[in-house]
Design brief:
Length: 319
């Protein structure tokens, strides 16, 4: 039985989520068709550009992403507080970037409403849009709809392009967030289509490394790292960027070696988060194999069940 999205996503439980969306025509989302020789690799850029575009509309931060041949991964932060702080004009401006505004709202923007009833209706519409601006379901719907339309037009066909629902996993603590981000960024290496993080095309780790090489403070459109205590930015991922890069690099090396073999040089972030090395490598290779809807420690299970209004919850325990 399908679980309602409101029982999978709740900002009261956590603002961080790992999402996966798969194509029903599994082989040809972005890959190459060996039968016809047709290449669909350009669609990866479609998805990446749409993700970036939506960050200027929705108050949903992108922590990590990876665009694979038949699916893509996102790790997001739902920034409800940001949405709440927006003025009504800012809400309209954001919504209008990718949607045609109703005539009534256009008149409201130009101070041309003619009655109190029209004014109240405009406020009602704007507040509906405000709710959508922090909705993960609306974000994923807009992303997938646009790509499906372009792909179907290119393929000269109709029908479903994506599976009907995207998968989401709640990331309940810093350990789960770091594990999910590393899992996503290392997807191409684990799949054997890239040899190193810096050559992993259409991933957030490559975008971050490129920005670092260009001496940019953070990669455009990606949620910044603010783990450095001297950083005056208040909103961002609670790790240092250099710690995370070291963690990803170390984990990638384990994929290319025997999985039971442990490097002598362990990244400091694992020690700070008190994560067992074996447990870390397991979650970085098996996160999708579990049916868990949440990732975190056992002690967070009770409050998470309350926030999601569930009697039971399947949690992948990251020791």
């Amino acid at each position: 039985m399908t679980t309602a999205r409101k029982q999978l996503v709740s900002v009261d439980a956590t603002t961080y989520y790992h999402c996966v969306s798969r194509c029903v025509r599994r082989s040809f989302l972005c890959g190459k068709d060996p039968q016809t020789g047709a290449c669909y690799e350009h669609r990866r850029k479609w998805i990446e550009q749409k993700i970036y575009a939506l960050t200027h509309v929705y108050c949903i931060d992108i922590c990590a992403y990876a665009i694979m041949s038949n699916h893509y991964h996102l790790v997001v932060n739902i920034n409800k507080a940001w949405t709440t702080a927006l003025s009504q004009n800012e809400v309209v401006e954001r919504w209008g970037k990718v949607h045609k505004l109703p005539v009534l709202i256009q008149r409201w923007v130009n101070n041309q409403t003619s009655s109190q009833a029209e004014q109240e209706k405009c406020v009602e519409i704007i507040e509906t849009w405000r709710e959508r601006l922090w909705s993960l379901s609306w974000f994923m719907k807009e992303l997938n709809y646009d790509i499906a339309c372009k792909a179907n037009q290119e393929d000269e066909c109709t029908g479903h392009f994506w599976e009907s629902r995207f998968k989401s996993q709640a990331l309940l603590d810093e350990k789960a967030l770091a594990a999910a981000m590393a899992y996503v960024d290392l997807n191409p290496i684990r799949a054997g289509v890239a040899s190193a993080p810096e050559t992993s095309d259409f991933t957030s780790i490559r975008a971050r490394l490129k920005a670092l090489k260009n001496q940019q403070p953070t990669a455009p459109c990606l949620y910044p790292f603010i783990g450095n205590p001297t950083n005056d930015m208040l909103d961002g991922i609670p790790f240092r960027l250099m710690d995370y890069i070291e963690l990803v690099d170390w984990t990638a090396r384990q994929f290319r070696e025997d999985k039971a073999q442990m490097s002598q040089r362990i990244p400091s972030i694992l020690q700070r988060l008190d994560v067992n090395q074996t447990s870390w490598l397991k979650v970085c290779t098996q996160m999708e194999k579990t049916r868990a809807t949440a990732i975190g420690t056992q002690k967070l299970a009770l409050e998470t069940k309350r926030a999601l209004n569930k009697q039971k919850i399947q949690i992948y325990h990251l020791a």
